[in-house]
Amino acid sequence: MTATLDPPVLAPAASPPPARDLFVDVLRLFAIVLVVAQHWLMPVFDYSGGTLVTGNALTVPGGWAITWISQVMPLIFFTGGAATAISLRRRGTGPDRAWVAERILRLAIPVLALAALWLPLPHLLLALGLPAEPVSVGARLVGALLWFLAAYVMITLLSPALVRLAQVLRGRELVGFAAVAIAVDVARFSFDAPDLLGYLNVLAVWGAVHQAGIHYGNGRLRGIRGVRALALGVAGFAVAALAVAFGPYPPSMIGLPGDPMSNMNPPTAVLLALAVGQLGLALAIREKIAAWAARPRVAAVVGRLSGSSMTVYLWHTPALVLVAGVAVFALDRGTPDPLSAEWFDGVTAWVAMLTVVLVVAVRVFSRLERVRLPRPVAADLSAGRLGAGGLLVGLGVLALTVGGFRPETFWAPTGPLVAVASITVGVLLLSGGRVRNAFAGGSGGRDGQPRWSSAARTGRVAS
C-alpha cells in the first residue's frame, strides 16, 4: 500500500502504546460532567390536580445552541474507542474473548446493582401511598439513559474486529460508516422509510466516532493538532450548521419538546458533523489539557474520578428522581420558569442536594466498577458463549431503556423483571458463574487504564 493512498491525517500506529492517556481521561470526565449538568438542569416539574407535567428548560429561545456543546456522546464514544485501542495493544497477542467478556461485565454488573434497588422501589413507593403516575414517570426515567450502555455493549462485542479493521483500512472505514449514516437519513427523510431504519445509525454514527477513537488510541491522529485541528473543528460545526439550515434536521442536538423530529433518537448523520466539530476543538488544545492533567494532584483526582465515571452515569438520574420527588411532593415546590430570577436563586441549592445524593451513591456503588472476570474461566470462554452472553446483556439493557422500571410493566415479557433476568443470565454466561470483585490491587484497570492504588488516593500517581 503506497503512502499516497493513505488519508493524510492518519499516521502509522504509535509504538509502544501509552500506559494511559491523560487527554482521554480528562475528555471522558468532562463529558460525564456535562451529561450530569445537562440532565440536572433541564427538567421542569409541575404537579397539580394529580398529574405530573414535565418540561425542558432548553426550550427557551436559543436554548438549542447549548446542545451543540452539551451533547457529548461523541466525546464519550471517542474516548471509549481510544481506551479500547490502548487496552488491546497493551495486552499484546492472544485471544480477545477474555478482554471482551471483562469489558461487558464492567458495564453489566453496576446495572444489576441499580436494578436491585429499582425493581422493588416503585412498588414500595406505591404501597406507601404515592400517586401512581409520578412513580411510573420516575421509574421510567431511571432506565431511559441506559440506551448508551446497550449500544456500547454491542460495539464492545465488535471491538476486536473494529480494531483489526482500523489496522487494515487506516481510516477509509470511516467513510463507509458516514455513507451508511447519510444513506439511512436519505431513506427516512426523502423516501419515507420507517423510522425503525434510523436505529441502524446507532451503529453507523456512534460506531464511526468509536472508530475515530480507535485510530487516536493507535497514534494515528498525531497530525491533527493546533491550527489544523481548529480548522477541522470549525469545518465540522459549519457542516452541522448547513445541515440544520438547509436539511430536515432540527437545530437541537438532543430531542426537545416541540421539535418535529429528534437528532438523537434515532441518531442522524448531523451528529457526525457535530462530532468532527467537538473533536477538532478538543484536539486543538490536546497538549494543554495533557500538560494540566499531568500535574500530580490533578492526575490523582482524575484517576480517582475516572474509576467512578460509570457509577456517576448510572446514578445521577436516580438522584434527580429522588430529590425532585422530595421537592415536588414533600415540599410542594415545582420548577420556577427556566432562567428566571427565581430559577437562578434556587439552582445552587438544587445542584447541592443532587450532588450530596450522588456522592453517597458513588461511595456505595463505585466499587462494582472494579469487578473483573476470573482468568481461568475467561481463557476457556467460547465464541458462542461470549456472543450469547453479550447479546443477553445488550437486550436486557435495551429493554430497561425503553420501559425503565415501571411497576405496571413488571411482569410483561419486555418488562423490568425479564430485562434484569436477561442481564443476569448474560453475566453468568460471561463469567462462568464465578464473578469476583477486585476492590484493590490487580493490574489493568477500567478502560485500559491502570488501577488506582492507595498511593494515588493520597496524591501520588501510580505509574
Helices and strands in order:
Elements: H1 22-41, E1 43-48, E2 51-56, H2 67-70, H3 73-91, H4 97-118, H5 121-127, H6 132-144, H7 147-169, H8 172-190, H9 201-217, H10 226-246, H11 270-284, H12 286-293, H13 296-306, H14 309-330, H15 341-365, E3 371-372, H16 375-379, H17 383-403, H18 416-431, E4 436-437, H19 454-457
Antiparallel strand pairs: 1-2, 3-4
Pfam family, one: Acyl_transf_3
GO molecular function, one term: acyltransferase activity
Domain Acyltransferase: 22-362
Task: Describe the protein.
With 463 residues, this protein is mainly α. The protein has one domain (3-457). The chain is 63% helix and 3% strand. It has 19 helices and four strands. It has helices spanning 22-41, 67-70, 73-91, 97-118, 121-127, 132-144, 147-169, 172-190, 201-217, 226-246, 270-284, 286-293, 296-306, 309-330, 341-365, 375-379, 383-403, 416-431, 454-457; strands at residues 43-48, 51-56, 371-372, 436-437. Strands 1-2 form a two-stranded antiparallel ribbon. The chain has a two-stranded antiparallel ribbon with strand order 3-4. A hairpin with a 2-residue loop joins strand 1 (43-48) and strand 2 (51-56). Helix 3 (73-91) crosses helix 7 and helix 4 (97-118) packs antiparallel against helix 18. The chain is globular. 45% of the residues are buried. Mean pLDDT is 85; it is low at 1-9 and 437-463.
Features:
single chain; 19 helices; mainly alpha; globular; disordered N terminus; two-stranded antiparallel ribbon; 63% helix; disordered C terminus; 463 residues
